[in-house]
Structure formats: structure tokens, C-alpha cells
Amino acid sequence: MRIQFKTSYDHDMRLFPDAWTACVYGALMVVMVLLPVLLDEFFLGEITNVLIWAIGGLGLMLLTGQSGQASLGHAAFLAMGCYSNTILIEQGLPFVIAFPLAGVLTGLFGMVIAIPAIRLHGIYLAMATIAVSVLADDVIVLLEPWTGGVSGKFPEPIVIFGFEIERWSQPGRFYYLVLAVTVISTLFYRNLLRAPMGRAFAAVRDSEVSATALGVHIPRTKAIAFGLSCMITGWAGALMGYHAGTFNNETFSLVISITLLMMIVIGGLGSIHGAFLGAAVVAFLPQALSMTTDLFGGSGVAIPGLETGVFGLILILFILFEPTGIYGRWLKIRTWFELFPFARKAMFRRQKSYLKTERLR
Fold it and tell me: How far is residue 110's CA from residue 71's CA, in Å, rounded to a whole number?
């Protein structure tokens, strides 16, 4: 059993809790770097898809899990990041400039959307973001000279300082690009949590009344959360466009927004690990269902609605029996083993979602 003794407030600001945790993540990074050598192109493509979903999950997790603002419209920001990156490259900008700029533009757009939306709470905020996602479909069609409309667009191969990266012919290079963006996004998220702004996000999530009493500017904090969340989501959208090879107005539908939200709920709200665990479920579920139907004598014909139904069933089971998600369950198991035989079931009693002070709103 590892027991951490904190002798300074700086211990709460460390990137890793202890040396053992740092070594574990270092070993994980070594494995991730070696994956193109260990796996074939199919499974490498699946892992790449998991990482892209994880980036999008980190973006939504920052807004919903960290600052408590529910959103069902992040597909619109995925679309904006994807189209912005492609259009900027078509205008002559190199990828190393167009890709970060696409995320920044998406973040600024998210802050503009947040100005009227931050006055809403709960289901009303979710409905407003749904409207943004639905409108994005029509906007893409109306801006056909820029977006290609229904016909869509085909992103050009990525060129970084003369080094070409193509998703289909060079999956290893594309995987390393996605891995680099994933590491940067994760470190950005982790360091944000250690900063005063990240603590302000958590304060707004737990109780807006208490946060106001502590001097947190609620509208500004929510707008910044929206902007940073949309920036990371825009990067995920740009990578999704490259991974798919082609995209149009139907690629980033409302279903994608719902899938993103369900993904972070299943993985575990409020944790970086939850974004990655939820992304693994979303990415591998279709393959698992396909192999299961083949195992039980399936004819190879896809069953309409099977994937959506199973995903919804998994979500319902988690909401009923494990609201903290996969990562929350893992924390309970780990804590039980660390404290055995002194662990008690009451340690994990479910807490109320809101403080009593929230009734004053």
C-alpha cells in the first residue's frame, strides 16, 4: 500500500502524484510509441481512431466534467475545426499554422456562442447547444462555395516541413501525428487543472453561489471554459476529417454530439482517464459487435440500430449502477485493495449532485 505524505502545498500542484505514477505513464508512452511496430495497419487505425475520439472527449470533458456545463452541440465545433483547417490549407497556409489556427478560431466561435448560452442552466443549456448543432448542418449547406455543401470536401495530404503524411498510405506517420496532438492536449488539460483557472472551473461546477462568494467571475469563467473546450474539440474535428478521408454536412451530425456526451459519462465525468476509457468503448464497440454476431453464426449483414441500442443500454446501466463511470469503478476497486481490510462500503456512498446553496438560484 502506497501512502502519500504531503509536507507542502506544492505537492498538490505536482504533475504526477509520485514517482511510481510518473514511471507508469512513462512506460505507457514507450508502448504507444512502439505500437506501429507491434500492430498491423488495421489495429493501428483503430487505435488512432480511439485517440481522436479521446481528444474530442477531452474537449467536452473540460466543459461538462470540469465546469459543469452540459453540451449537446459539440458536433458543430468538430465541424468548424475540420472545415476551418481544410479551408485554411486550401488558401495556402501550411499545416503547422492552419491546424493550430483552426482550433483557435473554433475556440473564439465557442466563446461567442457562450455569451448568450452561459445564462442558461441544465436542460435549457443542453437545448441551446442542440440548436447550434442542428444549425451547423444548414450553415454548411448554405456556405457551399467554401464548404462544398452536400458534396463535401477531400482534405489534402498533410505536409510538415516537406514531410508528407497521408492517412491511408502512411498510417504510421498519421498515428504519430495524432499521438502528438493527444499528448499536447492532455498536458494542456492537466496543467489547466493545476492552474487557478482550473480551480475556478471546479468551483463553478460545484456551486455557482459559493464560487461567487469566493470572488469567481461566473460569466467570464464559463465563457473561457467554452472557448478552451471548443479549441480542443476543433483539433479533434480536423483530425477526424483526415481520418475519414472525406466529409460533408452529414458527417458531424447531432448523433456525434450525443455520442461524445455519452462517451465521457461512461468513461467517468471530471477525469482525464474517463475521456480515454470512454473513447475506447466508442471506437471498439462496433468491432466487438461485429465479431460477436459472427461468432454466433451471423450472416454478416449489419443489424440496423444494434450499435446504438447496445450503446444506449450500456449508458443506462452505468447511470443506474455506476454513475462515476469506468474510471470511478476502477478507483473504488483500487481503494478497496489499498485499504483492505479497513475499507467500508459507506466510503463510496453517492453524494448529492448540488449543494443546498444552489436552491437560491
Answer: 12
| Number of Cβ atoms within 10 Å of the Cβ of 214 | 11
Number of domains the chain contains: 1
Give the CATH number of the domain where residue 102 resides. Answer: 1.10.3470
* 105 and 213 Cβ atoms separated by less than 8 Å: no
Q: How far is CA 46 from CA 52, 241, 281, 284, in A?
A: 10, 15, 12, 8
Residue 9 in domain: no
The set of cell numbers assigned to 9 is: 502545498
Q: DSSP letters of 82-142?
A: HHHHHHHHHTT--HHHHHHHHHHHHHHHHHHHHHHHTT--HHHHHHHHHHHHHHHHHHHHH
User: Which is it for the CA torsion 76, 77, 82, 83, positive or negative?
Assistant: positive
Q: How far apart are CA 114 and CA 222, in angstroms?
A: 8
pLDDT tens track for 257-293: 888 988 999 999 888 999 999 999 988 888 777 777 7
Listed in order, strand segments (DSSP E) in the chain are: 158-160, 163-165
Residue 339 has pLDDT above 50, yes or no: yes
Structural domain that includes position 244: 17-264
Residue 354 has pLDDT above 60, yes or no: no
pLDDT digits (tens, 9 = 90+) for 123-134: 888 888 888 888
